[in-house]
Amino acid sequence: MGIKIVGLGGPDRGSGKTTRAMQAAPKGAVFVWVNHHLDYPKALARHLGREDLKIVSPEWIEDHRWAGLDMTGLIRDPDTRFTDAQWDRWHAAKIRVRSQSDGGVEHDRSK
After folding, report:
1. Would you call 76 helix, strand, or coil by DSSP?
2. Which of 7, 35, 41, 94 has its CA 20 to 30 A from that of 75?
3. The pTM is what?
4. 100 pLDDT exceeds 60?
5. H/E element holding 43?
6. Closest C-alpha to 8, from 52, 38, 51
7. Helix or strand or coil: residue 63?
8. CA angle 2, 43, 18 (to 5 degrees)
């Protein structure tokens, strides 16, 4: 069972999927939450000792806020539902993620 934070969450909380996703995320990753209400995921991240995660709403993907960023990871909550346009932008944003296996050095893909 997932971690229960008093005063937060609703009847669908408690499966542990979000907790496991946050725990498995690379240090400093961007974590896309299901909507623009970010109090719960931010409190959960603090509770898990994952203040390093940047918690954002799906609009972050839509607005191209990832463009030009050097990300260590891009994770979405397992319950996040994207539109077709958001999926397209998600895949484009995933290209910006640094490889953890190469020490964080992004490869020049133009060669």
Report:
1. strand
2. 7
3. 0.75
4. no
5. helix 39-47
6. 38
7. coil
8. 35
